[in-house]
Specification:
- By secondary structure, the protein is mainly alpha-helical.
- It folds into two domains: 186 residues, no CATH class; 213 residues, Serine Threonine Protein Phosphatase 5, Tetratricopeptide repeat (Alpha Horseshoe).
- Helix content is 64%, strand content 1%.
- The chain contains 16 helices and two strands.
- Helix 3 packs parallel to helix 5.
- The chain is globular.
- The two termini are 24 Å apart.
- The relative contact order is 0.08.
- The chain binds zinc ion (ZN) (2 copies).
- One zinc ion binds next to loops.
Length: 400
C-alpha cells in the first residue's frame, strides 16, 4: 500500500522507512552514495551538526524534525547508527546485540511518548517526526509484519487526522486494521481499543458522528477489558464520546459522559501510587480543561460543578510537580467553593487544606528554592506524585 506521510510536502512511503533507516548510516553506505532526508527521503544536503549522522533535504525539514523529536534523541541514536562490527568473541557480539536491542526499545518508548504528547498538545505537524521514528524503531525491534507496529500506525493516523489529511489517515488506519485482522486473537484488547478510538476520531472529524459513536463505544468496551471500566486509559474513550455527544447537541449525554471521566480521574488522583508519563499528563490536562470549559458554559446552574474540575486539575498539577499551576487552580476552586457554599462547608475546608499543602514559595520561585521546598516539609505531600518515566510503554495508553 502506498502511504505518504504529510505535513505539506511529500513524505516517505512507510515501506521505505526501514531501508532508509539502514541506508542513512554513512559507514554502511557505499562510497559516493547520496544521503536521504530523515523526514521525506529526498536527497539530503544538510547534516545535523551534533550527531553528524542525520541528514535533511532542507532547513524546514531539519527544524520540524528537531522540534518534533530529534532534539530528544540526537545523542541517543549515535550508537545505533554506528556499525557494531564483527570483532570480538561470540559472547561479546551477543552482548553488543543485546545492548542495541535495549537502546532500540528505549528509543521506541521515548518516541512514542513524545508523539502522544505532541498529539495531546495539538501539535500535529510535530507529532509526525516522532511517530515516524516510533514506527522505525518498532520495525527494528519487532519486524515489519508485527502487530506491535499498530500503535505507531495509529500515531501517524491520528496526526494525519489532526492535519485534516484524511486519505492519508485512512491509509494508516487500514494498515493498522489489516495488522489487527491478521493477528486475530493474538491482538491485545488495548490495541483494538486504540484502533477504534482512532477510527472514532476520524469519523468525528469528518462529521460522521453516528459512525464515531459506534467506534468509541467499541474503544470503551475493549479498553475496559484490557484495563478496567474505571481506568484512566478508558476515560480517554469516554472523553471522546462526550465530545461527539456535544457536537450532536446531546448535552445531557455529554454531561453524563464527562461526569464519568471526572469520577475516574478523581479516583485515580486519590491513589497512593500514581505515575503519569508526559503523554498521559498532556492528555489529562487536555481532558480536564475541556470539561472545565464545558461545565462553565453548560452547567452554570450548579456553580461548583466547574470548580470541582478546577480542583481535580489542581490535584493533577500537584501530582505532576507543577506546583505553581496547582496552586493557581486550587485558588480558583477555593474562591468558588467559599462564595457558593461558605467557609465551613466540608468541600471548602478540603480544598483549603489541599491549597495550603501545595509547595510553592510565592516570594521566591527560583528553581533552586522550589527544589529545596519540595525536599523539605512538604515532601510528604509531593512524594506520592513524583513523576517517573515508566520503563515500558503502557500499550493501552490512549493514542491521542
Ligand atoms: Zn526532507
Ligand atoms: Zn543529531
Amino acid at each position: 500500500m502506498s502511504v505518504q506521510i504529510g505535513i505539506s510536502e511529500t513524505f516517505p512511503k512507510t515501506t521505505q522507512l526501514v531501508q532508509r533507516g539502514k541506508a542513512i548510516n554513512p559507514l554502511s553506505n557505499p562510497k559516493g552514495q547520496k544521503f536521504e532526508c530523515e523526514l521525506c527521503g529526498k536527497p539530503a544536503y544538510i547534516q545535523c551538526k551534533n550527531c553528524r549522522l542525520t541528514y535533511y533535504c532542507d532547513k524546514d525539514h531539519e527544524t520540524i524534525d528537531f522540534r518534533g523529536i530529534h532534539e530528544k534523541i540526537c545523542q541517543l541514536i549515535i550508537p545505533l547508527r554506528t556499525p557494531l562490527g564483527d570483532f570480538g568473541s561470540e559472547e561479546e557480539r551477543a552482548y553488543r546485540e543485546k545492548q542495541t536491542r535495549i537502546r532500540q526499545m528505549n528509543l521506541l518508548e521515548i518516541t512514542k511518548i513524545e508523539a502522544h504528547k505532541k498529539l495531546f498538545e495539538s501539535q500535529f505537524d510535530l507529532a509526525i517526526p516522532a511517530a515516524l521514528q516510533a514506527l522505525r524503531f518498532s520495525m527494528d525491534v519487532y519486524g515489519q509484519d508485527s502487530i506491535e507496529l499498530v500503535p505507531s500506525y495509529l500515531l501517524l493516523g491520528e496526526a494525519s487526522i489532526g492535519l485534516k489529511q484524511f486519505s492519508q489517515a485512512e491509509d494508516y488506519l487500514s494498515l493498522a486494521k489489516w495488522a489487527v485482522l491478521k493477528a486475530d486473537s493474538a491482538c491485545h484488547p488495548s490495541i483494538r481499543a486504540q484502533l477504534h478510538r482512532n477510527l472514532g476520531l476520524m469519523f468525528s472529524s469528518q462529521g460522521n458522528y453516528d459512525a464515531a459513536l459506534l467506534q468509541l463505544a467499541n474503544d470503551i468496551f475493549f479498553s475496559s477489558i484490557a484495563k478496567s471500566p474505571d481506568h484512566i486509559t478508558t476515560s480517554g474513550g469516554y472523553f471522546q464520546l462526550g465530545n461527539v455527544f456535544q457536537k450532536l447537541g446531546r448535552l445531557e449525554d455529554a454531561t453524563a459522559t464527562f461526569d464519568k471521566v471526572i469520577s475516574i480521574w478523581k479516583l485515580f488522583l486519590k491513589e497512593k501510587t500514581k505515575f503519569l508519563n508526559e503523554a498521559q499528563q498532556a492528555e489529562a490536562v487536555q481532558i480536564l480543561t475541556t470539561i472545565h470549559s464545558f461545565r462553565s458554559v453548560h452547567m452554570n446552574s450548579s456553580v461548583t460543578s466547574a470548580a470541582e474540575v478546577m480542583y481535580v486539575l489542581a490535584q493533577l498539577y500537584n501530582t505532576c510537580n507543577k506546583f505553581d499551576k496547582a496552586k493557581a487552580c486550587a485558588e480558583r476552586a477555593l474562591e468558588t467553593y467559599e462564595s457558593a457554599l461558605g467557609r465551613d462547608h466540608s468541600m471548602t475546608v478540603e480544598v483549603k487544606i489541599f491549597y495550603k499543602g501545595i509547595v510553592v514559595d510565592d516570594k521566591d520561585s527560583s528553581p533552586s528554592s522550589r527544589i529545596q521546598s519540595a525536599n523539605s516539609k512538604s515532601r510528604k505531600h509531593s512524594i506520592n506524585g513524583m513523576m517517573r518515566r515508566t520503563s515500558s510503554v503502557n500499550s493501552a495508553s490512549p493514542s491521542h
